[in-house]
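Exercise 7. Given the encoded structure of a 488-residue chain, write a plausible sequence.
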């Protein structure tokens, strides 16, 4: 199928022209900053127009960002498209697609599991299948999923289950002969003008489905706007209104019985890989604060990327500052108002500042270029060395993927690429400073992901103590580690 890109960038205007007070956007941004919630970007659409947008430098508009589980809602969209094309129905049984990978004895509950159960996180499992699948020795994630016990009747028990979304990707590839990414390219990405999306795959070449998609902030906003417009885009019905209604309405109860149901956006019901929110909204979201929030009553969409461990506080800020302010219809542009000028200044100065440089340490010339062999550490780094000049430093690491070098600015961000996280090549903005005479701090922003890695090196006569700290992690034990190195 020929791919034709028909969409241009979204239209822009001043917020007041879309009935959004500049003061409300400023209040939201100030709240995010005061709470140090780690936003990387945001884009607010109202009436299909970008009313405000910003990136915390050195994050940039053209850079894709890892979506984590926000990917799931794109997988849901692919399932809706495939069902409309007659490739399967939501009532088709999961085991029927994998006769070669199904267990010899299929339990009654596994036999009941259908595509709709995968979509609503109601597969009947009582623990997420993803870790078992990722750890499968033969790389056959579908077989690993099917061999796990299904203890609840499918459709009756909500459990957030990333492995279930992978199975949707695997089913789609079975019936279409295309990966999820290939399938969506002419049907979704090209019409919306989403260029160069990437999606991580399992060892067998099946897109992960439940995570792994990377696109830009504006791409996230376009995706939300497509849903807000009931599947219509540039005069074409890309996705049926019926699918959007089903996908974004409550399909299963996800209330865990806790007392904070009224203030939690994780207990308002779950659709087909979309979360229901308070205030009549719904969202796609991913770990560490990746958001596509659709507010139908306000005719608004909010796209956010971040590296945050407090996603509820980000949403609280949306409900407190943005949502109630969107009551007025488009009117005066407000172009001359003090509030509009204040917002413009705020947006222009959004940044994650590098650590303020201290005076250079006398140790700089002593440790310059020295290689330290590192003891066992979580990042599996073999050695560590830093060399310096007047304006920058070069960090050399022996990593799992071989020798890697990262350029760091002296009190400013410097750009390079290296394979440090999960064998992947990441774009890195990095800086360094001496915090004390013997303590060197290196900060690495992996600007296409939520992650920031700080390395604090304390130098002794022939050794270094290296403290590694991430801003966010799936596991608390991986947030921080201390490693000792010795001169090679």
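Solution.
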């Amino acid at each position: 199928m020929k791919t034709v890109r028909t969409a241009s960038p979204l239209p822009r205007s001043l917020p007041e022209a879309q009935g959004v007070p500049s003061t409300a956007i400023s209040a939201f941004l100030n709240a995010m900053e005061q709470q140090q919630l780690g936003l990387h970007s945001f884009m607010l659409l109202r009436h299909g127009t970008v009313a405000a947008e910003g990136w915390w430098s050195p994050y940039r508009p053209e850079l894709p960002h890892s979506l984590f589980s926000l990917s799931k809602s794109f997988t849901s969209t692919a399932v809706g498209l495939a069902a409309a094309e007659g490739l399967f129905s939501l009532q088709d049984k999961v085991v029927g697609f994998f006769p070669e990978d199904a267990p010899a004895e299929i339990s009654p509950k596994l036999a009941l599991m259908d595509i709709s159960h995968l979509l609503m996180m109601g597969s009947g499992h009582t623990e997420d299948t993803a870790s078992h699948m990722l750890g499968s020795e033969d790389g056959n994630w579908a077989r690993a999923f099917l061999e796990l016990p299904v203890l609840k009747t499918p459709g009756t028990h909500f459990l957030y289950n990333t492995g279930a979304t992978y199975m949707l990707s695997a089913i789609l590839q079975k019936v279409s002969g295309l990966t999820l990414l290939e399938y969506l390219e002419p049907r979704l990405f090209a019409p919306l003008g989403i260029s160069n999306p990437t999606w991580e795959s399992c060892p067998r070449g099946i897109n992960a489905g439940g995570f792994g998609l990377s696109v830009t902030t504006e791409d996230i906003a376009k995706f939300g706007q497509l849903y807000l417009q009931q599947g219509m885009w540039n005069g074409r019905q890309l996705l049926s209104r019926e699918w959007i209604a089903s996908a974004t309405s409550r399909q299963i109860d996800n209330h865990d019985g806790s007392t904070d149901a009224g203030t939690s956006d994780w207990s308002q019901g779950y659709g087909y890989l979309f979360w229901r929110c308070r205030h009549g909204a719904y969202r796609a979201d991913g770990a560490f604060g990746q958001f596509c929030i659709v507010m139908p009553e306000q005719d608004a969409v909010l796209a956010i990327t971040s590296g945050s461990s407090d996603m509820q506080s980000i949403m609280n800020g949306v409900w407190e500052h943005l949502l109630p302010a969107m009551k007025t219809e488009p009117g005066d542009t407000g172009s001359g108002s003090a509030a509009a000028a204040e917002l413009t200044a705020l947006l222009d100065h959004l940044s994650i500042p590098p650590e303020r440089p201290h005076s250079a340490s006398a140790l700089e010339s002593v440790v310059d270029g020295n290689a330290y062999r590192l003891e066992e550490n979580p990042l599996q780094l073999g050695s560590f060395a830093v060399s310096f000049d007047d304006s920058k430093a070069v960090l050399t690491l022996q990593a799992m993927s071989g020798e890697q070098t990262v350029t760091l600015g002296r009190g400013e961000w410097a750009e390079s690429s290296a394979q440090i996280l999960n064998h992947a090549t990441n774009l890195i903005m990095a800086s360094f400073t001496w915090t004390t005479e013997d303590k060197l701090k290196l900060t690495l922003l992996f600007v296409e992901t939520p992650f920031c890695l700080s390395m604090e090196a304390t130098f002794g006569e022939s050794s270094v103590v290296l403290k590694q700290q991430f801003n966010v992690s799936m596991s608390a034990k991986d947030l921080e580690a201390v490693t000792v190195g010795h001169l090679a």
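Remark. The radius of gyration is 24 Å. Students should compare their own answers with the one above.
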